What we know:
Elements: H1 5-14, H2 16-47, E1 58-65, H3 71-86, E2 91-97, E3 108-112, E4 121-129, H4 133-137, E5 141-144, E6 153-154, H5 155-160, E7 168-172, H6 173-179, E8 189-191, E9 197-204, E10 221-227, E11 231-236, H7 241-255, E12 259-266, H8 267-274, H9 276-310, H10 312-320, H11 325-362, H12 371-396, H13 399-404
Parallel strand pairs: 4-10, 6-10, 7-9
Antiparallel strand pairs: 1-11, 1-12, 2-11, 3-4, 5-9, 7-10, 8-9
Amino acid sequence: MFRDLLPILSTLRRHRIAAGLIVLEVALTCAIVTNALHLIQTRVAALNADSGLAESEIAVLNLRSSRPPPPERATGTVAEDLARLRALPGLKAATVANQIAYGSNSSNSTVSLSPDGKGLRIGASQYGGDEHMLATFGLQLVQGRNFTADEVLDSHQAFSAAEPRIPQVIVNQVLADRLFPGQAAVGKTVYIFGSAPTTVIGVVRTLTNTQMHRARGDGAAMVLPLRGGGFYVIRAERGRLDAQIKAAAAALEQGDRGRIVTQARPLPEMRAAFYAQDRAMAWLMGGVCVALLLVTAMGIVGLASFWVQQRTRMIGTRRALGATAGQILRYFQLENLLLTSAGIALGLAGAWALGRLLMQSYALPPLPWAYLPAGALSLWLLGQLAVWGPARRAARLSPVAALRR
């Protein structure tokens, strides 16, 4: 095989432009496909992300009123609405929340360990709800306890003060680990709004930012015991969500004839809409990968076929001098291996540079090193498969037929 290197290199020097185009095509394919596959992997990971909620049992209802109550009476109206909802047969739980995963609202605050806010400060997604919120969302409490009814505050009154005082908070596991690494978070004091201390009374396993992977930060979140404005969230028995949405909408509108339910959406439907762009991007990137690989394979096939025609007499001469069909086949395979290897070397450098650019421009995770050898191996195999057909046709030429052309 190595005896063929000098003739191959000599031939490639005489066909610099054609060989260079194949090398460039392989390099571009390697750089783009490697990063495209990484993008697909990040999108698929996002599509499979766990929100921590009992999504298949949850629906969100938004109300609009022609005569909304004043802020000081909003809490009483909400309490009456929730009483009607919780009385519906087949409804597991109901609450009012300021935000929920896949929604358009996003409320965030910083949490620190000192009243002056110095030292460690962590941005966290801020949920507000009553003692039924954990059950309605389906959140799993792994440490501590839930809020009690007398600990839930009127959100309007709480935030009317210059420095809100909220004595209790429930945090998610991510925030607990960041605030108190290696320690139990329950019973510890944190500061959220100025110098007023807040005690951690519970830790839930998973609770995400409403914008999931699109949000900045590491996924820290907390729940404050606040009842007030927002939207209604219901949790129904499995398989009965659609029927419960209709019943809940009717109960809310019946309580006040001046109100209508403007939107009632199951959480799975909200999730599908939220991830529609990511899903489309994954399919688009997959299509780009397939198209580039096909174009590269067709380019290799075309060039190999052209060179077989150009070297018919050379093939015949080699066969007449005793070269076997296997040696002719290996000649073209080695030639293709040299071209694809040169393209892959350039492509891997390009893939790394493109990955760095995407990481800096779009806050993507760095390109895993495992993608580079995987991309190289895939293109080597693609090159060998693409050249197989033209190389076999060359190997089957008889010496007499080849010399006559």
